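Researcher: Quick one. three chains, 1149 residues in total.
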Amino acid sequence: MIAARWLMLLVVIQALTVSACNQSTPIPKVSEAKDGKPAYGDAIIEGTIGEASTLIPILASDASSLSVAGQIYNGLVKYDKDLNIVGDLAQSYDISPDGLTITFHLRHGVKWHDGAPFTARDVLYTYRVTIDPKTPTAYAEDFKQVRNITAPDEYTVRVTYGAPFAPALASWGSSILPSHLLEGKDITKSPLSRHPVGTGPYRFKEWIAGQKIVLESNHDYFEGRPYIDRYIYRIIPDTSTMYMELKAGTVDLMNLTPVQYVRQTTGADFTARFNKYRYPSSGYVYMGYNLRHPLFRDKRVRQALTAAIDKDEIIHGVLFGMGQKAMGPIVPGRWAYNPHIKDIPYDPGHAAELLAQAGWTQKNADGILVKDGKPFSFTILTNQGNQQRLLTAQIVQQRLSHVGIDVKIRVVEWATFLKEFVDKGNFEVVLLGWNTSQDPDMYDVWHSSKTNPGELNFIGFKNPEVDRLLVEGRSTFDIEKRKKAYYRIQDILADEQPYTFLYVPDALPVVSSRIHGIKPAPAGIGYNQILWYVPKTEQVY
Amino acid sequence: MAFKHTYFYSVFWQRLKCNRLAMVGGWVVALLFVVSLLAPLLAPYDPNGINAWRVLEPPSWQHWFGTDELGRDVLSRVLYGARISLKVGFVAVGIAVAIGTVVGLVSGYYSGIVDAGLMRVVDIMLCFPAFFLILAVITFLEPSIWYIMMVIGLTGWMGVARLVRAETLSIREMDYIMAARCIGCSNMRIIFRHILPNTVSPILVSATLGIAGAILTESALSFLGIGVQPPTPSWGNILTSGKDYIEFAWWLSLFPGLAILVTVLAYNLLGEGIRDALDPRVKG
Amino acid sequence: MATYLVKRILILIPLMFGITLITFSVIHLAPGEPVEMQVAMNPKVTKEARDRLRKFYGLDKPLHVQYLNWVGKLVRLDLGRSFSPDNRPVVDKIKERLPITLSLNIIALLLEFGLAVPIGILAATHRDTWLDKGITIFVFIGFAVPTFWLALLLMYFFGVKLNWLPISGLHSLGSDSFGLVHYLWDMAKHLLMPVLVASFGSLAGLSRYMRSSMLNVIGQDYITTARAKGLSERVVIYKHALRNALLPLITLFGFSIPGLIGGSVIFETIYAIPGMGQLFYQGVMSRDYPVVMGILVIGAMLTLIGNLIADVSYALADPRIRHG
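Model:
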């Protein structure tokens, strides 16, 4: 079920997820309840802001859908609590010495929730339907690298790649779909989107539109029956309401905002009833400069902008300290993270110098820098519905005004944001976030071939050395070689500053103390969910 | 004519003065005008002055209304917010009244097919739940203050149109209009010189009530994140930013909330008072 | 009466055409496209994937073709399929939510009328007293307070502090296994706050209308006559005046209909009530054109029919109109 959550890397809209984090920081557990005896029964209620759109995971890209689907489906592999790739539906796997062929040995005796056996047919089907041009999915790209896929027998799948492809193994964490229910049918019109059938620890029970999705424990789950009988997602669109529901005891699990974590959930009453967790999330928030725009062509200007922004101030003011500085595209704690990046510290004086070197020496009557008669003025675009980013933009605005730069803020609703501004390169600066995958491959975001409209290198970053390193990094399995490539990329980006990397927010889940067995690990808290339990005496549902 | 008008307004004024609630409303409205005009003088701090190290501080001598989630002075923001909120109210209602009046006058004066056509447009517009239309249009365009005012105005003119039309229908039949027509006045002149001044009362009432409604609509849009955009303060967006902290940072929602409440209340009392004072049927 | 009805129904045709036209143009005002939502900043999505989505949804066809297709389907009551990845028929989505919004709003409306009529009468019969003024201020406060603020305050006090009422949603968990009485009681508790908040807001308009309507009637000759005959004040007010004062309320009922179907985005969001308002808001935010168009059109059509019913019942109740 963690496996399906990999897809979360694709989701930028900030969302409720309890998994996906990284290795470094120890996780402070706020209160340690005395563990009673594990027992079956009870239910856990998770609050979710959005309603799932479809429970066929390859068709979904919203966090709500993927979170629910993650309980219902499995991939062939998953990440364990220490973020190592291990088998899931695959009992084991072999990788050929040249790294081009992966052989998955599937588990025997796994049954779909409707009783049909799980076999290699399902894997082949999932592959085929994902790369089918008629399937509106966002996840075809990794599977397209596959040259050949075969099933020598019912329980073996052999995948061959044309060239070494480092993220290959991880890409098989995608949810496997039931071929006996979908084969030969139009997946976009399948009833499975509302009544999914998977192999996971929880099976679908009911979905009451706009209210809740109820899952029941799968007694035949191949890793054992989950203790908690029901997993219920309650749809509560307003954050204030959800927080009140939590306090009233009618929601067991949600993600806190930093201010809630720091200021509103500290009393003895609260800590007796809930356990809070905190660990770095897997995403970072950044300001991206449109490098096609004359203002931002000069490296010194970009460096100056970074030097003029106080990242600590943002982390303190917006995140209440619940986060850390971002310095590059790989979040701290990952194996590919370069601990020696030379970040540009906050220093308005230095910023002014750099700007002066770039020719911005004069100021007009309003105190705004002027060059060739033009004031230094631009607009930060950000997407609607993300309070933290909006607050961040306002702090940046104030800081930049201190060095004589006039900043306007424009918040645009998401669809327009992408279509009208990002895709057309019609922006000056964007304030956005990326969620990153465990694998450091970031070809799509930084390679110069990905700068066309609709692609992800929308700031137009082009650097031949980075291009070469990106290819190098994804086409070898040698960790040391990969590390070298990604370290170097981080150094180059730290110098070039195509983005000002701002911060990595912490994930701040809170869980009712009724739920026992939660063992925070580098993978977060969701990885051992089938072992969570409520002692008989504390069961309420 | 002149005499009639003077008499009419002095009676109106007398009656309005007797309505104490309306007078209180009127004074509050006047006070708000002064406050929003003088906001730069009254505000103790820059409404957009961020201090990330002093966020969400409770009211104190330094910050009478406390600070918000970016450490800005809430009092200053509420004062400046008065400007924005009133501006939204006035411009939106201005647009609604302008369209409604023209449609109502034209419709009532020409009658026949023009009237039928225009009234069908009114009927169509009235079929849509107004807030849905506003929501869709603002989201699809962009939530700038100008669009907000425009869209609130464009979805709010139908009531005015109907009232003005009804008034026009009765005025049209009066002798002095006949007379004007006989001496060869153009239609435009009759409509705008002779009929319009006599439709002022319903317009005035709907404008007063409309301003209150527009302020509320802006706050509802702010709640959904598509009202006036930060950092520009409006009562709606200050209140919205305070909603997540109702429990422990009550000051952030209380002051803008009260500002909206009192203002809308005042406009309503004033509007009702004007209506009563103008209504010949309700005898004083 | 029959000609009146026929006339009224014929008028509906141009109105419906206008409604579809406005709906369609509103939707296409904007630059963004629905596919954007799905492939939103997705590091693994490519240009071809995007075009594929566009084609799948028929967005590559010219506007007028899209419109004609849509109206053609509309006539057959086919509102198309949602752009969201679930791809469900819009009609199904609306069907799920319309009953919730309708019943909630009808309850609120009944409560409004139930409260506003006596309050209005009380204010009218005690005109210009402190009671009248107090009522005026009270009902206007209801109108003037921002809904979401009031809702959150109530939630906090009754839900969290006092723990008397459930905070949001329609049912408690496990309500499926409750007995009927318990089930209804549970639902009533959930609905209490939203219904109160909803009706408090519209009390002002209605009760003020009732008040002036009552005053208007009381000022008329036949009431004076009734009084002169020596009838008791109670009989005069409740037997003679009230009936006529209530008549205009039928029209007002008609006016309330757009609100009935529209529901309220705000308190449906706050109280996590899965009604039309929420559906519409989500549709707007994700550029789910078929859902947005479907709700606007269905909402407007139902309003048309509602108004027709209101007009006809008014005509039935008031003989002056029937032959007009």
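Residues 1-33 of chain A have pLDDT under 50 and may be disordered.
Researcher: Thanks, that's what I needed.
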